[in-house]
Amino acid sequence: MRREVAGVVAPTLEDPTAREASAVLGGPAGRRSAGHPWWTPIRVVLALACVTWLLAIGQKAPCDVGKWNGTDQRYRLMCYSDIPYLYAGRGFAERWVPFTDNGGRYMYLEYPVLTGYFAYGAAIVTQAVVPGEVDVATRRTVPVDQVGNLPSVYQERLDYFRVTAVLLAPFALLAAFFLAGAHRRRPWDALPYVLAPTLVAAGLINWDIIPVALLAGGFWAWARGRPILSGVLIGLGTAAKLYPLFVLGAFLVVALRRRQLRDLGLVVVGAAGAWLATNLPAMTDNLEGWKAFWTFNSSRGPDLGSIWLAFSQHGHAASPHTINLVSWLVFGGGCLAILVLGLRARHVPRIAQLAYLILMVFLLVNKVYSPQYVVWLLPVAVLAVPRWRPLLIWQAGELLYFAACWWMIGGLTASATGGAPDPLYAVAIVLRMAAELSLGAVVVRDILRPQHDVARAFPDDDPMCPPRMLLAT
């Protein structure tokens, strides 16, 4: 029988790796421990999330101290971030609203609408807190390639990163809060998220922590029997990055198995409404600007981290159209296989398990796997496999790729310095894929043999489903 402390599952009593790691803090919880009266699990999780986000900011400190000067130091020290470079590169320094017509001065922002609006808002905040008046009119007369060299813009670029890091902090904390509340009896399952080394390394490369928090919020709302709110949060997440949309497939399978199609419909309506409300202003104002995200991703060739790039670099190139077609066909086939698995498994799979498999397949066949995409998987991975050892193995593969990626871009590995394709980078891509698949194999085993799934109190238990849904099985 699983041992619990005050009705909450204690990881040090359940997980061997957590139990061994607890030795530095005095060992596992006692069987009769009532816990600390103030340091409740959620407060501990949030406190650790604060520390982790501070470490994520510190991880970018070498580049910040170097004033984001564009040298190879950003790759050697692995502190690169898109955020400061896009401040001048996409017109934020001149207050061009994303997706609107800027007279062809800048390319349209290649991000979804909610991310673009957030990035623009951070620029407005930055310009409001810097000393002196921002002369936007003068900046718009300077050649585009010289805007970033203006002394005022050069300094604002540094401040823009710092302001953005502060404004993103609530999303990191929200994700921790939602994950701690997504599983009844299991708030400590959020610990692998708040302590994730990949969150430290990749959390501030881009704005991806926004959809991470919104997707985690969708799980949290579903677990509390609030399907409309769950859909709204997933819809907002899709407005920030496309991938939360695919997670609806996990809700579909569980709703079919539990005969909860009404709840599924409410989720879909909430998601569609939130996505449309967020996108409609940009769509109606300038459809071409709004479409930039879609056209950019459709026309781009194989890019960082993808198996397609490894093929291309080693003499097996394919056109963007071919890659689009094959990747979507393989992704569709993978989703069909997950659907069959979810419908035919003896016991109803957990939503997080199916969500991880869907996102895993998407990332494995996608034509780009930027280093920050690892944070996409974090919320679903820690809920799908609440065991420290397999999660650490997976993150080790991700960190190996993280280092290989930056060193390849900077030409810092011995195999890359001659200008030829870097075989070590291709090996890192394969090892990262193997790490994802190893975690996926654990998920599939737990679905087929739920007695191995530590998150279940009984075979058909899903801690992310409210009791009324469990009774409908």
TrEMBL record:
The chain crosses the membrane at residues 111-130, 160-182, 194-222, 228-252, 264-284, 325-344, 351-369, 399-418. Keywords: Cell membrane, Membrane, Transferase, Transmembrane, Transmembrane helix. InterPro entries: GT87 (IPR018584), UCP010361 (IPR016570). It is a multi-pass membrane protein. It is found in: Cell membrane. Coiled coil: none annotated. Belongs to the glycosyltransferase 87 family. This is Membrane protein. The lineage of its organism: Bacteria, Bacillati, Actinomycetota, Actinomycetes, Propionibacteriales.
